[in-house]
Amino acid sequence: MSASLSQRRFALVAALGCVALALSPVQSPVARGQTLTLLGSFNGGNGANPFGDLTLIGSTLYGTTAFGGAGGDGAVFSIPVGGGTPTALGSFNGSNGEWPYGSLTLIGSTLYGTTTQGGASGDGAVFALNLAPTPEPSTLVLLGAAALGLAACRRRWRLCGKP
Predict the structure, then answer these.
(1) Burial tier of 91 (Cβ tally within 10 Å: 0-12, 13-18, 19+)
(2) pTM
(3) In a 10 Å sphere around its CB, with 0-12 CB exposed, 13-18 middle and 19+ buried, how is residue 4 labelled?
(4) What's residue 102's pLDDT?
């Protein structure tokens, strides 16, 4: 049985529609004509050659650099989402690893990551960096002075019956 004229026309129109669809440009969801915004720059001391994904915690981005830092073998850095100078939070020196690679993982208040070289055998290391705030010595001195002041007030109150 041969196809009717209407069936052949339908097939031809369908084929032409497929060809037109295949040749049409596909719209990309990426915005074109946008400019990049510089958030910060490295200077060697705070790291060099950033590598890997960034980890967002609150309003701060954390990442690693393959080189730079105090030991020269890479660093873990932080930078505010709004931009600023990256701050080196920890540096690699070979014995604690070198050339960090991959993403940072946050568990509790500690960042974990890996290095491709260094460590005890030179074949890489797994590292942890605690982000919990550590009180500064001056803060501890002020807390101690406040505790002494409260103790003196309490003693005076007991002896004199009034503040």
Answers:
(1) buried
(2) 0.63
(3) exposed
(4) 87
C-alpha 38/C-alpha 85 separation (Å) is 11
Q: How do residues 53-108 score in pLDDT, each as one tens digit?
A: 999 999 999 999 999 999 999 999 999 999 999 999 999 999 999 999 989 999 99
Residues 123, 89, 135, 111, Cα dihedral to 10°: -60
Q: CB-based burial of residue 66 (10 Å sphere; 0-12 exposed, 13-18 middle, 19+ buried)?
A: buried
Cβ-count burial 100-135 (b if 16+ within 10 Å, e if not): bbeebeeeeeebebbbbbbbeeeebbebeeeeeeee
Q: Phi and psi (nearest 5°) for 119?
A: 85, -170
Task: Identify which of 113, 77, 73 has the alpha carbon closest to the alpha carbon of residue 94.
Answer: 73
